[in-house]
Amino acid sequence: MGFATRESVQEYMQLPPSKPGYVPQLLFIDRKRVIRAEYVGNDDFLKDQDTNIRALVETLLKEPVAAKKNTRHTRKKAS
């Protein structure tokens, strides 16, 4: 869950500034910041939103998580 300005959302979704926004607008973004699903306005998904949101979130959470890269830098001792 998050909040962002209209401009930053439109930029992230790669929408032109002139495209009207719809309410509600529900986006599911995965761990890699990829939009995986989008539902707007009167989409059937929103009619039973509690069940559908839970199912989609559970599906996304079951996906494997990429291993984190080791961010520690090791220094070699001078010989």
- Fraction of residues in helices? 25-40%
Subunit organisation of the chains: single chain
Class from helix and strand fractions: alpha+beta
Write down the Rg.
19 Å
Q: What order do the SSEs take from the amino end to the carboxyl end, as H and E?
A: HEEH
Overall shape: flat
Strand order of the largest sheet: 1-2
Estimate the mean pLDDT confidence.
80
Number of helices: 2
Distance between the termini: 52 Å
Query: How much β-strand is present in the residues?
Result: 5-15%
How would you sum up the major sheet? 2 strands, antiparallel
Short description:
The protein is built from two helices and two strands, in the order αββα. By secondary structure, it is α+β, with helices and mostly antiparallel strands. The chain has a two-stranded antiparallel ribbon with strand order 1-2.
Describe this structure in words.
- The protein is α+β, with helices and mostly antiparallel strands and 79 residues long.
- The protein has a domain at 22-61.
- The chain has helices at residues 6-12, 49-62; strands at 25-29, 35-40.
- The chain has a two-stranded antiparallel ribbon.
- Strand 1 and strand 2 (35-40) form a beta hairpin.
Write the layout of secondary structure elements.
Elements: H1 6-12, E1 25-29, E2 35-40, H2 49-62
Antiparallel strand pairs: 1-2
Name its key features.
2 helices; flat; alpha+beta; 79 residues; 2 strands; two-stranded antiparallel sheet
